[in-house]
From TrEMBL:
Any GO MF annotation of the entry: zinc ion binding
Chain intervals with Polar residues compositional bias: 67-82, 101-110
Location of the region described as Disordered in the Swiss-Prot/TrEMBL record: 40-121
Keyword match Metal-binding: yes
PANTHER family reported for this sequence: UNCHARACTERIZED TRANSCRIPTIONAL REGULATORY PROTEIN, ZN(II)2CYS6 TRANSCRIPTION FACTOR
Keywords, alphabetical: Metal-binding, Nucleus
Biased composition (Basic and acidic residues): 45-56
GO biological processes: DNA-templated transcription
Main location: nucleus
Name assigned to this protein: Zn(2)-C6 fungal-type domain-containing protein
Amino acid sequence: MQSHGIYASAAAGIALNGTAGAQPGANGFSSAPAFGAADNCPPYRPHESVEPRTDFRGQGIGLDTRVFSNGTPSTLNGQSDGLNDVSPPTDGDTDMPLLSAVTSNSSGSPTTTRKTKQRRNKPTLSCLECVERKTKCDRSRPCLACVKRQSNCDYTAVANLIATAGKNSDGSSRARYVTKPPAKIRKMSTASSLTSAGTTDNGWASIDSRAHTTPKGQMSSAASPYLLSNVPYSSATPSNVFGMGTQHPFSNYWTCQGGLPEVISVMPSKEQADILIAKYFEAVDPVYPFIHRRSFYADYERFWASPTEEKHKTDAAMMALHYAIFALGTQFLQYPGYEERSQTAEFYCSAANQALRLYSYLNRTSMRAIQAMLLMAYFLMNDNHASDAYAWAGIHLRQSYAMRLHRDPDIVVPEASVIEKQQRRKLWQAVFFHDTFLTVLLKLPPTATHSDVPVESLADDNELSNDGIDFDSGAHSRVENLMSISVIAPPEDYIPLPPPMSHHMVDLATAKSDCAYIRSMWHLGNLVQENLSSPCSLSLPLTHSVRHKESLIAAFKRLYKSFPSHLTNLDHLWLQQQAINNPRAARQNLFLTSNYHHCLMLLQASENSSAGVSANIRAALEAAHEAIWAFFKLWALFETEAAVWWVFQHRAFEESLLIAHLLSKEVGSSEGEGANGKALEGICEKAKEDVGRMLGIMERYGGDLEMHRTRKEVLREAFEGILV
């Protein structure tokens, strides 16, 4: 054990009470407090027992150590306190001067003999960055401190030699393995950070970076200079993550005691609710068809027909689903102004959130609850809260896993009806699709990556089956709480469905068309998640060789050719006819076209110079043209909806910005290259017109939102830099 009282205090001439020159106590001895902190020590009281304490090194040292006039340390009870057995601190333990044993002079005052301070003779094992900053280093490679501050972690040759010897001797290593992009990518990231101080290594603008970025539209540090990942373009505050949506998404209008009756009390009238439900099934259900219409309407009509007392006992998850549909339906209505529509829709979404809270959505779930949360995520995106939607989606995705929607229903629920199994497949596809394509836009890693549900199991025969049609499978949908008794409890009896009305039913042709659309989007999502989502989230090249890029492009094109013809027809006149005769199919065509060609554009524009992979400028411009024209067609055919869909607007903005960068850089550098320059002449003029058209449309939607204003400024500046 070590004692610092006999080394420091005695040499300073500090007496028992910590004041210089104090006289010895009445009993002829004085005390030397450890490290001179006498004012923290109690005064000596004879015959009083004092508990031992622990000094800063965690070693037990008695508080009542005494030094007699002859210099002999002792304790009150006359027993040795162990200080004589303690050797001075060794070199490397402390930098304090080492003192000899305590002696006394002729006046009785204790004196000491100072030794020469010994120099440190140990090799520096910490990394150079931590030594320079004087911070703690855990000596891993890289150390945790350097990982946190994102600095280089270098060690001396001696430190590396010792670490290597230790690894070889015991077979273990303290190295910390961090996934990093290749050296080529890291160099590009470093260069990008010099020109855009507000961009982090994954391309997102930092919290207070908007005022420092240069210029607007600065590209991120992705593997290819054309894969833009800082596209939110908004003034960020410390409270938002991705620079979108600066207010709390769910305003609180609710009391603690109100409960579900309070939520039900703010329901719109039956006539208004009918309008909102109809608008949802007109505008939203065609592109995200995962709700069983007849079951939903059965619940809906039964609720309105119930007395007030019965309404207050309604399933809270069902009320959340109703309010989520009300919120989305309100977004697609033609209100006089953006603010009025937004406030009404946000109120309904707040009611949906309150219903989910009353349902306890964090510790149990059901198909209704997941459906409601998924629709709320799309609502938040349309309401300029994409960052909140991303965080919110993490909950319903994990609840989907908990409910085992990612598993083949023939395996996990073999006793379920055909219709219930089909609804489980549809809901998992909707969750998977939302996660995959939102993460592509935000350049974040996907999460819905584990599933054994076969795409082809979503068959037309299952959709047209009558097995289970006579019962309301949604009324008592399976509730999963893996820690509750409900897992082993028998399910409740199903409630028979009432006779359907005409608008409650979906005709067979529409049901088959919806299945074909869902399967197509599912196949596309699988291909995108596997080949685009993860590399984009890590700023890695999409391809590692020329052959690999050609193979991926061929795979995308083969998949597109396998889709039904009514989903791949790009003729504008045909779509105009479809918008009149079959608007549901027209919407599905435009959504599939936009998603497919957007991903193909990213792939064509990708490059990997270290592997000899270059961007195919012409093919990228052609894919961008088809993708952005899907938005133009949506605007021409369904203008109100085009002004609401955030995902469509966001993709179109990315596409127009990438076109502008291609035209301002690569095309300008290829002028005068003979055949290459002439081959781009026609496509360049068309591409420039696309950017100009997008700027014109952006003037007609978005209101006075700051993010939208910033996007327009960014795109206008990029448009002015086009060289053709």
